[in-house]
Design goal:
single chain, alpha+beta, 60s Ribosomal Protein L30, Chain: A, 5-stranded mixed sheet, two-stranded antiparallel ribbon
């Protein structure tokens, strides 16, 4: 199995990749993919984001509620300006209104629309989320379940889901399966560990993209 540095390390607000980064990505992805992209964002009159299992039990302490609110507004964990977070959350909570993808404003009552289902779990993982969008007649426009499985990765039960975790079999110029093998590769190649990792990363992206990603 091949693993990129960019899979191991994620940029995002804390304190938890599974309880903060993952839920923000899931919320943004639901609105973007199932409402904005199909051209149905303007039809949404209400949105409900339900947390299940561990996300419900410990989510508020780990910022899950805040992450979901920000994600619904179109924020992404690797791009958000941390300085806007307090004012954004205060606006949503005081006005009881949210701007989906930053443009389409609807009523949002956190107690009603962001419930923590502490005694329920979704089938595939304890960090489960269900997002449902309704129109003005309270008919469902779209609904999807997501799972935050750690490390900022988000999967769902739909075949079109991004970030589905599967074994990466990309061949690497300096493959290893243990620390001893890594040191042996370094000795054989005459390269430092950093230089080997840089060459390995080029199996997925260009040198310029690697440098840009590391500077984020």
């Amino acid at each position: 199995m091949s693993v990129s540095t960019f899979d191991l390390f994620k940029i995002g607000i804390g304190p938890s990749s599974s309880h903060t980064v993952g839920p923000m990505r899931a919320a943004e992805r639901f609105v973007h993919r199932w409402l904005l992209d199909p051209g149905r964002l303007h039809e949404v009159a209400r949105i409900r984001a339900e947390m299940f299992g561990s996300l419900a039990l410990t989510g508020r302490g780990h910022g899950t509620d805040k992450a979901v609110l920000l994600g619904l507004e179109g924020q992404r964990p690797n791009l958000i300006d941390p300085d806007i977070i307090p004012a954004t959350l205060a606006r949503i909570r005081l006005s009881k209104r949210i701007r989906l993808m930053g443009t389409h404003e609807i009523a949002f009552d956190e107690k009603r629309d962001l419930p923590m289902n502490k005694r329920q779990k979704l089938p595939y993982h304890t960090n489960g989320m269900r997002f449902t969008a309704f129109d003005a007649a309270d008919e469902v426009i779209a609904t999807r379940d997501y799972y935050s499985v750690g490390g900022g990765f988000v999967v769902n039960t739909d075949d079109a889901a991004e970030d589905r975790i599967v074994a990466d079999t990309t061949p690497l110029p300096h493959a290893f399966a243990s620390g001893d093998e890594m040191l042996a590769q370094s000795a054989r190649s005459g390269l430092s560990i950093a230089a080997m990792m840089f060459e390995n990363e080029q199996a997925w992206r260009s040198p310029d993209d690697i440098r840009a990603g590391l500077r984020e």
